[in-house]
Target: Branched-chain-amino-acid aminotransferase
Amino acid sequence: MITDTAFDIQKTSQSRLDQVDFDNLGFGNVFSDHMLEVEYTGGEWKQPTIKPYGNIEVPPALHVFHYGQSVFEGAKAYHVDNETVNLFRIEKNYERMARSCERICMPFVDRDVFMEGIKTLINVDSGWVPRKEGNVLYIRPFLSAFDTVIAANPSETYRFYVITSPVGAYYSKSVKLTTAEKYIRAAKGGVGAAKFAGNYAGSFLPARKAQEQGFDQVLWLDAFEHQYVEEVGTMNIFFVIDGVLVTPKLQGTILPGVTRDSVIQLAKKWDMPVEERRINIEEVIEAGQAGVLEEAFGAGTAAVISPIREIHHDGSSVTPQETERGEVGQKLYDTITGIQRSAIEDPFDWVHPI
Ligand code: COI
Model:
């Protein structure tokens, strides 16, 4: 049991829980009754508050509107039984958010405020954690610049929020990817490894163009040679080529995903050959054409393990042998979701009950 003493808890008198159709959840369009808010002013973080989820009134000069100084995270809470809700590797989210803040030149809350804040918020809104398998409570921490002055300098005022949302699957079917001919997501020395809001905004136009051509998402290639596979933007990417699990190496341009790391650790534990390395897109196309591209899937908190059914690059399209989750993808999905719900053993100490 955690102590609530450090948090000012203001509960709503009007829960919206009975308005939610838990049998038909979308993704990120319904929000739980409460949110965590912590203000940073005068060089220090103030007392964390848990208050009713609702609008925040802000002036048009708000720093984040103009300069985009904002980072976020994605995590999930899992229903186990009527007494237990699990968090999965939440310390990895804290560590990544701390690194994102450093890169975008923002202060960050103490580990305790992040950890206990999320736990307290979920305790307060425990009724919002979906029971049905496959559905979870998505946790969205974010930190944004709150100065009200037109000046392209780091803000001196910030707010850290955590909001939560009961969700279903992010991708309901396997996805079709295309590389982007003239766009890039991130370059070395840039902000690609940070969960920085601008990385997502920058992907919207290329993604829209890809969707207009019948694809679901862009498969990003490196900025320099435009040859090496990076990530999908909403998830990291894995291929099973001739029995080997292959994924792009982290070199500062790819988001270091928590699910990505979990996939690699599990595959190694199962003695499956794993290669984190540069992957030329031509190698993927050739593997597909030679029939040895056994599986391709994305891995991410929102996406979990999402199968890829087509990859298009420079006039060629390949289809993995498995267009839905294959043997490897399914085993990873079952193991990760099983550990998250404490349905199977957790040899890595990844889950922590609230
Ligand atoms: C997540 O996987 O949690 C993300 O933040 C990705 C986002 C596109 C939903």
